[in-house]
Design goal:
Blueprint: E1 2-6, H1 13-24, E2 28-32, E3 37-40, E4 47-50, E5 53-54, E6 60-63, H2 70-82, E7 86-87, H3 91-98, H4 100-109, E8 117-119, H5 126-132, E9 138-142, E10 151-154, H6 157-169, E11 174-178, E12 186-193, E13 196-204, E14 219-222, H7 227-240, E15 244-252, E16 255-262, H8 268-274, H9 278-289
Parallel strand pairs: 1-2, 1-6, 6-7
Antiparallel strand pairs: 3-4, 4-5, 8-11, 9-10, 9-11, 12-13, 12-15, 13-14, 15-16
């Protein structure tokens, strides 16, 4: 098959591993920078012009679209869909996943466990917002934040009030979430491909850090999910319409709670922690569907 990987950096671990896995299974594979694609729209003949040629006879696309280029990246994915190429992450699912508020609303509708969350239109009733999530400590997240950036733990009411008022003053959209104390600064990343968990790791924040992101200096180790955790991860990916997803969840006293569903999850942390060939699972997903 002819497979295109949409990635702005061909040297990234995830991109390289996908190329390697595709070649091992005898597919043609090319890395395409989505920002250098020209979208050609005409009746009955949608196309993409890239580096002096039209991209024709594309069987499948693997989008690795960064959050900062979501708008144009999604338009390129949509164009490939119009050209009848199979895509491991659909354009609509990609857009849904990048909107944290919309994601939480969809997960809530699917009756999936979540930390209690409040979103307001720059409400002046900060005290009411704090009380809605059960008081402090609580977590404040920028809607546009990624990799743990724009996430603040407020341990007191004064701290929570100051941070929320500061963000409101800057007209920065935030959500306020209950803090799950029993998680002890750890979360689980479950990697879901085609409705199955193909690998899972437990990430622990470094000492004094409640965020467990590996980009923030956290550590990771392989974990075997409980049946309840596995079902929650698969249902979360399905609710978002994602064939490939990194589902982040917390272990709580009331069961697994979904934090986020990532539509472009990195492979390095999960493959090194689990020693599993996740890239191969993604290529096999394409072989089954393209």
């Amino acid at each position: 098959m002819n497979i295109k990987i949409l990635s702005r950096n061909p040297n990234l671990y995830s991109t390289q591993r996908l190329v390697e896995a595709a070649k091992k299974r005898k597919h043609e594979v090319e890395i395409i920078d989505p920002l250098k694609c020209d979208i050609v729209i005409e009746k009955r003949k949608p196309n993409i012009y890239y580096k002096g040629k039209y991209l024709e006879h594309v069987d499948a696309v693997i989008p690795r679209i960064g959050a900062s280029v979501t708008f144009y990246g999604t338009a390129v994915v949509r164009q490939f869909e119009m050209m009848n190429a199979f895509t491991t992450t659909g354009s609509e699912a990609l857009l849904r996943s990048r909107d944290k508020l919309r994601s939480l609303q969809l997960l809530s509708k699917a009756k999936i466990g979540l930390p209690k969350t409040v979103f307001t239109n720059y409400s002046r009733d900060v005290e009411g917002v704090i009380n809605q999530v059960g008081g402090t400590p609580l977590v404040i997240k920028l809607l546009e934040g990624t990799q743990g950036l724009g996430v603040v733990l407020a341990e007191t009411k004064n701290a929570a009030r100051s941070v929320i008022e500061a963000f409101n003053g800057l007209q920065a959209r935030v959500i306020v979430q209950e803090f799950i104390k029993e998680a002890k600064g750890a979360d689980i990343r479950a990697f879901v491909v085609d409705g199955h968990v193909v690998g899972a790791m437990k990430r622990q924040g470094k000492e004094g850090e409640f965020r467990s992101n590996l980009h923030r200096g956290g550590s990771a180790e392989i974990i075997e999910l409980s049946d309840e955790e596995e079902v929650a991860a698969v249902r979360a990916a399905k609710a978002m319409g994602l064939g490939v997803a990194g589902v982040d969840l917390l272990q709580s006293s009331r069961g697994p709670l979904i934090l986020e569903v990532n539509s472009s999850p990195g492979l390095e942390g999960i493959e090194k922690a689990t020693n599993k060939d996740i890239a191969k699972s993604i290529i096999r997903f394409i072989e089954k569907n393209a």
